[in-house]
Amino acid sequence: MMAGGLARFLVLILAAAICGAASVFQPISDSHRSAALDVFVPVDGSYKSLEEAYEAFKTLEILGIDKKSDLSSATCENVVKVLASPSSSTLKDVFYVLSVNGILKCKSGEDVPKDIVSKLQTGVKDAKLLLDFYYSVKGLVLVKEQFSGTDISLGDAEAVFRSIKALSQSDGKWRYSPNNPESSTFAAGLAFETLAGVISLAPSEIDHSLIQTLKTGITKLFDSIQKYDDGTFYFDESEGPISTTASVIRGLTSFAASESTGLNLPGDKIVGLAKFFLGVGIPGDAKDFFNQIDALACLEDNRFSVPLILSLPSTVISLTKKEPLKVKVSTVLGSKAPALNVKLAQALSSGSKGSSVINNQELKFDAESATYFLESFPKNFDVGKYTFVFEILLDESANEKVYITEAQTKVPISATGAITIENAEIAVLDSDVGSVESQKKLDLTKDEAVSLSANHLQKLRLSLQLTTPLGHVFKPHQAFLKLKHESQVEHIFLVKTSGKKSELVLDFLGLVEKLYYLSGKYEIQLTIGDASMENSLLSNIGHIELDLPERPEKAARPPLQPTDPYSRYVPKAEISHIFRVPEKLPAKQLSLVFLGLIVLPFIGFLIGLTRLGVNIKSFPSSVGAATSALLFHGGIGAVLLLYVLFWVKARIDKDSFIVVSRFILDLFLYLVLEKKDMFFFLVLSRRAMSYSAAGQGKNSSGKRRISDLLTQSDNRVCADCSAPDPNWASANIGVFICLKCCGVHRSLGTHISKVVLSVTLDEWSDDEVDSMIEIGGNASANSVYEAFIPDGVSKPGPDASHDQRMQFIRSKYEHQEFLKPSLRITSVKGSNSSSSQQPHLEGMVEFIGLLKVTLKKGTNLAVRDTRTSDSYVVLTLGQQTAKSTVMKSNLNPVWNEELMLSVPHDYGSVKLQVFDYDAFSGDDIMGEADIDIQPLITSAMAFGDPEMFGDMQIGKWLKSRDNALIEDSIINIADGKVKQEVHIKLQNVESGELELELEWLLGSVHDSKGTIFVGSVSFVRWTQNTVSPSSSIEQVEICLNIHHYGGSYMDHVSPWRGFLFQFCSSDLYSLW
């Protein structure tokens, strides 16, 4: 109930803003027709329900859009099925089946579906609720209209009329049931439609007193109508103003269609209701869109009065171009109006008090364009803002019974023209006597190069005159003078208009603090703009050299200027490689001599073999053994040959060298390893790695490959909400998503969903395309991320709210709650020597980065010993503590000491405590404070790598009553590092202040006083592998689990960027 009330309140606020901001109402146009094709989009060629189908087809029919042939086949199948066997359908389903059949003509003729008529007549007889009466009576009316030769009538129509009338209330509202005392305006509209159907089905006239009583109730209902200041009327309750007002209009027009009712409604309220629906604009919700168009169609075709709407193609008139005033009068759906006269009664200026510039000026009519126009304006019509008051008079008295207009229509008009700028000058004045030291005339139609100089005892004066085309003084909406220091610090001053002159005087003596005591060159820029000024200007006047006093020590410093965030994408400076100067080589002849000396021992070795008569009879003689021996020695020779080829710089490419090397190495392993299974394992592993690496180099067309992947059935709906035709993708996760889920992915941060791209608009890199292809799209990714969705958790649909999408997507990708159990990491302690050989997991600690705290100094700390204290600081974050050194006998200690803390994934505030060290008793506390590190981490994560930016401010931790800050804590990027200065006052103690500096280190892995990872380390499994019948090898596998944030080696070896990676190492085989 609270959510519904809040939504209704927001709709009212939006409608009030629309109606209050503008009084120009435009009839239904082509923009509505274009929007209807986007709002009423079927899913897989059909609509979810017959109610949605009826609303879509009815709206398209009213707007004159012929799309029924594309969608009618699937819908007609359901219609014919229900008409043939209505026993299993509800009254509501039967009503909407007949409604759709009336538009699509799925079944027509003289054959009346008897089962349908019987079901509806039984529904009227047994009805107790208003909705049952509505669906039954309206269904019978539709049967009578659609099937020719049918004479369906209610036997006791007056009794049915009285049964429905019994649900009415004295205030004109109606109840849904006799047992529910709550009344509703929306129900009143349904009741009026139902009673109109009873009158049309009655075999004889209804008692006139009953109709008269009902007309009295309608009059009372209009007493509860609500109104805006511009004459817009509407009804409102829990269903919302659009649905409630549309229900009342449908009911009134249906009731007025009966000739016996003689309903006559006030014309101003009918026009006000039409203005309400036109003022809504184009609703984004399908239900509101249908209610808007259907209600306007009812007002367009009714028996009591058709409202006429006055609209202007443009509310801006250029006096320079001498544009005429153009006015159009039409019905709410844009149909032509009957013959009439349009008169401009008044033209009230916003600057005058009730005086009119134009009075009772009749507009001429152009039949070809159906436009009323005023060719020229009077000579006293000047630039400015006006309120035009129009009156519409029907020519023929017979039309007054059918058409109705407002007595007067007020429209805001803006008249624009060229403003004359005269006597523009800038001068430097002496502060004491006001004499002019230097003065320059200005031509603001072009940029000037005025050069001025002043000190802090002088003033700067800028003056000019602005006049309208008729010579009146013009006061612009915006007139600013900007001074921009050479350090990019800017100051803006307002130029005020007084009398006939616009003037600004800057007293530098009073502005030295605002200017931060910055001496030097200031660029001067003048901005003058107004909605009525066609020649608004932004002019660079020149510059002024200011000589200001030196900045005092305690004076405010100028703020850090933000850098352009797009500067990180500009081309980097070209790198010039300077290679090492080649060493001097000896002469070629000397090298050949040494080569001979090296080869000489080998030649002597060969001669010695021949002299000694070496026995080579043991060389294998069988074919198999001899072949193995030759291959063995040939392999050694091939390795030596490779070295020779490398030495002589033979032109062989890298890939060929690697292939030959691997072949020789594999052959060598085969010959020397006793474990042949190890050889095959090595070969297959290297082939798999080679195949994976080869997959990274695909160079086919990225657009075509993504399009081919998108055509797969699983990729034609959003991976997160199943919305049709997703046009966005998360490249590192590998899923196609819709526009609504795309916004949630971007909010997760680049460490989760790193690259969110448009399938059609963005340029895809080869790595991003390869990542999507290797993952395989939605089916492959969801088989991991949605492997186990627990009971009670449902996947959001296409119409889910933003909060539902956010909760599910965060649980799916950020918290990874739906992964397979084999991918989840838990903490289970067990013995390594367990005979069960089941996997055991040790305790896991997961970190996202490091926090370096530089403890600078303390001031006026509390006394805990006789006159002093031996102070030290303890920092606590989760289960970690860091302790500083003890400063003996010092109430104003200066530490300048660095303390390190690892920040876990679920971090909180850093607890800071100051103690007094006691050698023989417990240490006394000297105060404490909580340091919120979320602003620091959030700012650092948002900007990414700080080394890519210059010095700049990126965030702030604001001082408040809930924290211990003495002043706002600024977060800066300085020298490529993210740092935060913190000045706090210790809490729960009589005195004491501390100054700290925080520095965020993302992704640090080091081995100092224990290994710290951005992730977790765990023992995963202890197994025993049987190598042979007589031996086995025990294996311990240790895994480092790292959350991938991009920019590392893993970008090149795995497509699962943004996922939880696991690097494992074990003692399996000594070769590894």
From TrEMBL:
One Gene Ontology term of the molecular function aspect: GTPase activator activity
Q: What is this protein called?
A: Ribophorin II
Q: Name one GO cellular component term.
A: oligosaccharyltransferase complex
Q: What is the lineage of its organism?
A: Eukaryota, Viridiplantae, Streptophyta, Embryophyta, Tracheophyta
Q: Key word Membrane present in the record?
A: yes
> Could you tell me which InterPro entries the record lists for this protein?
ARFGAP/RecO (IPR037278), ArfGAP_dom (IPR001164), ArfGAP_dom_sf (IPR038508), C2_dom (IPR000008), C2_domain_sf (IPR035892), Ribophorin_II_2nd (IPR055375), Ribophorin_II_3rd (IPR055374), Ribophorin_II_C (IPR056790)
Pfam families documented for this protein: ArfGap (PF01412), C2 (PF00168), Ribophorin_II (PF05817), Ribophorin_II_2nd (PF23861), Ribophorin_II_3rd (PF23860), Ribophorin_II_C (PF25147)
Q: Which residues form the C2 domain?
A: 832-949
Q: Where is the Arf-GAP domain?
A: 703-818
Query: Superkingdom of this entry's organism?
Result: Eukaryota
SUPFAM superfamilies for the chain: ArfGap/RecO-like zinc finger, C2 domain (Calcium/lipid-binding domain, CaLB)
Q: Which PANTHER family match?
A: DOLICHYL-DIPHOSPHOOLIGOSACCHARIDE--PROTEIN GLYCOSYLTRANSFERASE SUBUNIT 2, RIBOPHORIN II
What span is annotated as the signal peptide, if there is one? 1-21
Q: Where, subcellularly, is it found? A: Endoplasmic reticulum membrane
Q: How does it sit in the membrane?
A: Multi-pass membrane protein
Q: What is its main location?
A: endoplasmic reticulum
Q: Where are the transmembrane segments?
A: 590-609, 630-650
What role does this protein play?
Answer: Subunit of the oligosaccharyl transferase (OST) complex that catalyzes the initial transfer of a defined glycan (Glc(3)Man(9)GlcNAc(2) in eukaryotes) from the lipid carrier dolichol-pyrophosphate to an asparagine residue within an Asn-X-Ser/Thr consensus motif in nascent polypeptide chains, the first step in protein N-glycosylation. N-glycosylation occurs cotranslationally and the complex associates with the Sec61 complex at the channel-forming translocon complex that mediates protein translocation across the endoplasmic reticulum (ER). All subunits are required for a maximal enzyme activity.
UniProt lists the family membership as follows: Belongs to the SWP1 family.
UniProt keyword annotations, A-Z: Calcium, Endoplasmic reticulum, GTPase activation, Membrane, Metal-binding, Signal, Transmembrane, Transmembrane helix, Zinc, Zinc-finger
- Pathway(s) per entry: Protein modification; protein glycosylation
